[in-house]
Specification:
single chain, alpha/beta, two-stranded antiparallel sheet, 8 strands, 20% strand, pyroglutamyl-peptidase activity, hydrolase, cytoplasm, protease
Length: 216
């Protein structure tokens, strides 16, 4: 059995729910065949989110880690290719922190690439009927903070783990007027199960050689 840790965030920015945690909980409750999945909720707070992630990794000793965050306005699940070493918060986190142009890890490398097969993961979700794409920016808020922080944990403390980050769209309850894209958390969870099953059997170096690039 492949051991998986999946994380989502607590609600932030005045929202009552966070679809990343909703989807993570659903996947943990009904994992893909051959995988054991544990879910952990991370605080939407710079620094504390990485402390909670490290604690969860130590407690679960997973083979794979998939961290999730909310990306309101995106129409599908976006698998992040890279996390960058900068915090630049447009809004305060849940503790009122708002770092500007500060490193996630002082003296850390500029970026960490996902160690999941991002293109194969996207293809698997699309095959499952869930809209998905590769993303080349995780932003500069707490999501990127965790995406980079996970890469640093893998590089420095847990080299046996593979992991990455994905953003999920708003849940329909967050867009009651239908003026922005949204996906039910159950639909997102269905796609994430396909993602995890693919990631478990596909090393990053065997990722699909297909174009998922962007011009801007």
């Amino acid at each position: 059995m492949t051991r998986v840790l999946i994380t989502g965030f607590a609600p932030f920015g005045g929202e009552r729910v966070n679809p990343s945690w909703q989807a993570a909980s659903l996947v943990a409750a009904e994992p893909p065949a051959g995988l054991t999945v544990t879910a952990a909720e991370l605080p939407c707070v710079f620094g504390k989110a990485l402390d909670a992630l490290r604690d969860a990794v130590r407690a679960e000793n997973p083979d794979l880690v998939l961290c999730l965050g909310q990306a309101g306005g995106r129409p599908g699940v976006t698998v992040e290719r890279v996390g960058i070493n900068v915090d630049d918060a447009r809004i305060p986190d849940n503790a009122g922190g708002q770092p500007i142009d500060e490193p996630v890890v002082p003296d850390g490398p500029a970026a960490y690439f996902s160690t999941l097969p991002v293109k194969a993961c996207v293809a698997a979700m699309r095959e499952a009927g869930v809209p998905a794409a590769v993303s080349n920016t995780a932003g500069t808020f707490v999501c990127n903070h965790v995406a980079y922080g996970l890469g640093h944990l893998i590089a420095t403390e847990f080299p046996h783990i593979r992991g990455g980050f994905a953003h999920v769209p708003w849940a329909p309850e967050q867009v009651p007027d239908g003026t922005a894209p949204a996906l039910p958390p159950a639909t997102v969870a269905h796609g994430l199960r396909a993602l995890l099953a693919t990631a478990a059997r596909t090393p990053a170096e065997q990722d699909l050689k297909v174009t998922e690039g962007a011009t801007h």
